[in-house]
Amino acid sequence: MRTCLFCGSTAKVTLEHALSKPILRHVAMSGPQIAETLRVEPGRDSVHRQWSTTVRNLWKRKAYCARCNNGWMQAMDEDVSPLIGPMINGHPTILSVEDKHALATWVTKMSLVFESLYGDRVVPDSVYRAFHASREPIGAESIHLARYEGPEHIFHARRVIRVPDATTGDVVRVEAVLMTIIIGQLITQTTLPAEHRELITVSHA
C-alpha cells in the first residue's frame, strides 16, 4: 500500500503538482510554456529534456495524502505567494528575517517534492517525515535565492552528489542532491541530504 511521503499516512494519495496554483499565478501563462529538466551525475551521461506544456500538465505525482496536499502544503504556498510574486517577475525585493525563514522553509518543501518525482529518489523517507514534523529548513543545508537573467521559463536541475572511493573510483556513498529550480526570473537552490540529518529550528529573534 502506498503511503504519504510526508506524514506516513496510508490514506489515499492525491495528485500533487510540484508547482501549485498559488505559485504559478505569478507566471505569465498566455500560452504553452517551455519547461526543462537537467539531470547530472558525475561519471554518467547528463540527461536534458525540453518541451512545451501548459500549467496543469507541469510536473506532478501521486505521493502525498489529501490532508497534506490540500492542508499545510497548500497553506505554505499561499503564505509565500505574495513574497515570491515580485521575484518571479524580476522585481527587487527586500526580505525581513521572517520572510527569509518562510522562503527557506518553502524552498525545502518544494525541493523535496521535486525529488519525489524521480524513480531513483535518494532522499530517504525519514527526511520527509522529519520535515513534516518540524516544518523547518534542514539544518546545515544552504538555501540560495537569485535573479535569473535569461528568457523566462520554468526549469529544474537535479544533481546527485556521489562520493567515490579514492583508490577504486567506485561510489561508496550518496551524499546529497543539489536541486536548482527556476520559476520565471526566480532561481532557488538547495541541497537535500541522502541520509537523515538533524533538523534545527531557526530562531526569529
Give the radius of gyration.
17 Å
Rounded mean pLDDT score = 81
Shape: globular
Task: Characterize the largest beta sheet: strand count, sense, and whether it forms a barrel.
Answer: 6 strands, mixed
Kindly state the percentage of residues in helix: 25-40%
Low-confidence stretches: 196-205
Question: How are helices and strands ordered from N to C?
Answer: EHEEEHHHEEEE
**First-residue to last-residue Cα separation:** 43 Å
Query: How many DSSP helices?
Result: 4
Determine the strand fraction and express it as a percent band. 25-35%
Instruction: Kindly report the oligomeric state of this protein.
Output: single chain
Major β-sheet strand ordering: 3-2-6-7-8-5
Q: What structural class should be given to the helix and strand makeup? A: alpha+beta
Number of strands: 8
Any overview of this molecule?
There is one protein chain. By secondary structure, the protein is an alpha+beta fold. Helices cover 27% and strands 32% of the residues. It has four helices and eight strands; from the N terminus they run βαβββαααββββ. The protein has helices spanning 21-24, 66-88, 97-115, 125-134; strands spanning 13-17, 33-40, 47-53, 60-65, 143-147, 153-164, 171-184, 186-193. Strands 3-2-6-7-8-5 form a six-stranded mixed β-sheet. A hairpin with a 6-residue loop joins β6 and β7. α2 packs across α3. The protein is globular, with a radius of gyration of 17 Å. The model is unreliable at 196-205 (pLDDT under 50).
